[in-house]
Design a protein that fits this description.
Blueprint lengths: L14 H11 L8 E6 L3 E6 L3 E6 L5 H11 L13 E5 L9 E5 L4 E2 L10 H11 L21 H14 L5 E3 L1 H12 L8 E3 L8 E4 L2 E5 L6 E3 L1 H9 L7 H8 L4 H21 L2 H13 L3 E3 L1
Antiparallel strand pairs: 1-2, 2-3, 3-5, 4-5, 6-9, 7-12, 8-11, 9-10
Helix pairs in contact: 3-7, 4-8, 5-8, 6-8, 8-9
Length: 299
């Protein structure tokens, strides 16, 4: 769910509340310092000591995701050979914080938003995404970002397209509205020709970690559930320049033509969403990908 579709004001949490929740519910961490915090549009992450973190949702609609994710992802963790900031335990509401939250393993690295990945890391990232995309059982909980399909995004796409066209591109460029809209709609009508897999649902520059340009892991798992793997491929494409795409798919493996078209549309949707968030690192990468695709030109 995008911030624009959230009506309620996002809540926050202060360090005193974090300290009280940790001490009450995870007393083995009572001697660990409440460290630096990172505020995202939909959640807040706080470092706890050297090896743990706590993620707190900012909207009520995400409460069920945070309540379930530690249990949902646990059976998959042994399959992952890459570093994972894994949800380890579920925190309960309390001390004035109204939602469930997660205790996670803290993986120390920068994000790809701040330190872009080197070309040598594209294959590793592709392999990691392939490991996520194992077949999901019929009763697997749905991923809210990857299960509904591109058709469900059309009203939000139209709104984001207007916003990005009015915002304007850097370096005296303008968005080619007709071309990007036509390209998005090609993928939006492409058939979903694969069975649902487990999906991350939040692959983007802030959830993919970078250690001086080397792939260093994946964060922000609260949406983990069954859905269309093309959505994750499109999210990863926001991080991977076109000249690194072949290496990414060398690690991931082959996909169908229809899946490639859907992934392209998810990438375009993510790019416009990142432009709206107004984070300078996200916006820079979004415009870089759009310029590579020939979708922004000189005014």
């Amino acid at each position: 769910m995008l911030p624009s579709s959230r009506i309620a004001r996002p809540i926050t949490i202060d360090d005193a509340q974090v300290r009280a929740l940790i001490d009450d519910q995870f007393p083995h961490l009572a001697d660990q310092e409440v460290g630096r915090r990172y505020t995202h549009e939909d959640h807040i992450s706080v470092r706890i000591g050297d090896h743990h973190g706590a993620l707190f949702p900012r909207f009520a609609l995400d409460d069920p995701l945070f309540a379930r994710v530690a249990d949902v992802i646990a059976p998959s963790l042994d399959r992952f050979s890459f570093p994972v900031s894994a949800p380890l335990e579920t925190g309960r509401p309390g001390h004035g914080f109204p939602y469930h939250w997660t205790l996670v393993e803290w993986v120390s690295a920068s994000t790809a938003a701040f330190v872009p990945l080197h070309a040598s890391s594209a294959k590793e990232l592709g392999s990691a995404v392939r490991q996520i995309h194992s077949p999901a059982p019929k009763d697997a909980p749905a991923n809210p970002a990857t299960a509904p399909g591109l058709g469900a995004l059309l009203p939000e796409w139209d709104r984001l397209l207007v916003f990005a066209s009015l915002r304007g591109a850097p370096e005296n460029r303008v968005l080619d509205v007709e071309s990007i809209d036509a390209l998005f709609r090609v993928g939006a009508v492409a058939p979903v020709d694969v069975e649902p897999t487990w999906t991350h649902g939040r692959l983007e520059p802030r959830s993919i970690q970078s250690d001086r340009g080397h792939f260093a892991g994946i964060l922000i798992w609260h949406r983990f559930g069954a859905g269309d793997p093309a959505a994750d491929l499109g999210g990863a494409a926001t991080v991977i320049p076109l000249d690194m795409r072949d290496e990414f798919y060398a690690g991931y493996g082959e996909v169908s033509t229809a899946t490639a078209w859907r992934a392209q549309s998810y990438q375009l949707f993510s790019a416009l969403h990142h432009i709206e968030i107004d984070d300078p690192f996200l916006a820079r990468m979004a415009w870089e990908r759009l310029i590579e695709l020939g979708l922004a030109h000189e005014a």
